[in-house]
Amino acid sequence: EGLVLPVDLSAKGILKISARNFNGTSSHPVFLTALESKASNTSLTIKKEFVRDFLYLSVSSHLPFTLRPSLWIVYGEEKRLVDLNALDDRTYFGTIPLSVFGGGVVRLEAQGDVNGTGVESFEEFSVYPISPEGGTVVAGDGEFSIEFVPDGVYSTLYCRVEQSPEGYSVYPKDVLLKKGAIIRYALPASVSIATVGLFFEDETDFRLLGSPDPDQPGELTGRVTRLLGDFSVLPDSIPPSISRPSIWYWRGKLQILFGLRDNRSDIHPDRIRIMLDNELLIGEYDPDKKRVTFEEELTLLPGSHELRVEAGDRLGNTQVITRSFSIGAQ
């Protein structure tokens, strides 16, 4: 039948109610509050946070709840009520395992009574369970897709794709992949594929993932093997920069040192060329220090010599510099 408490709710204040069992364990509290006499706007806010295989949900208001709010999750033909617990008089929270969703659009429907006024709030998101057998998620009306290859993940991963002005973000970003996934990004006809690339960014890395392919003029593709993150199509028509080469020649040994920097798509090691008086020299490129060194015994005649350095990035932008130097009699 319930328990009746002799409480006057017409008085100002907030009533906190909780129960304790014979073992001394307390229940989550319930808050009751009297109506405020002044008129004020009321609203509900739904917040969600994905934590591994669970969804943490909260319903809050800027004023105390008069009655406990309710939160429903709707997916497919199913509708489930979330068990909410009070964090305080203005916030209730609950959790639900992501395994209950079969994949697709999920709708959150919150209802509550705030200051005597019934209020509602709605929100939608999409989540797709990806098993080790693989699967594909398509977003942006087919503009973007991510295909998880067989054994691409260690265990079931609950994938979400969110679109932004910069591109697409794929979650979760903190779960290690096994064999990874293939990214496909369709390009509008107005974009010159020769000047753009598919770029990937996670918490530690920003790199070119895919470059133009003449066999697929309307699409950029790439593969991720470690983590998920942010994907975007960005232009890059700026060639690398080459620092002024330092040259030393002493007792038949030639040393050459210069640095390389690139704006976006990074230096392509196979597009570094060092020519001395039209003869090819093979230098060593250090991608961490962004530096090229050459050190070998080489016979140079006294007089003027010309060094030519060429460097290209992964999208084909090329820079060339030359430097003349003289060798005296030794």
Extract low-pLDDT stretches: none
Q: What is the helical fraction, as a range of percent? A: under 10%
Helix and strand composition category = mainly beta
Shape call: elongated
Order of the strands making up the biggest sheet: 6-5-9-10-13-14-19-16-17
SS element count, helices = 0
Spatial gap, N to C terminus:
109 Å
Biggest beta-sheet profile: 9 strands, antiparallel
What is the string of SSEs from the N terminus onward? Answer: EEEEEEEEEEEEEEEEEEEEEEEEEEEE
- The fraction of residues in strands falls at over 45%
Q: Provide the residue-averaged pLDDT.
A: 88
Question: What Rg is obtained from the alpha carbons, in whole angstroms?
Answer: 31 Å
Q: How many beta-strand runs?
A: 28
Key attributes of the depicted protein:
330 residues; mainly beta; 5-stranded antiparallel beta sheet; 28 strands; elongated
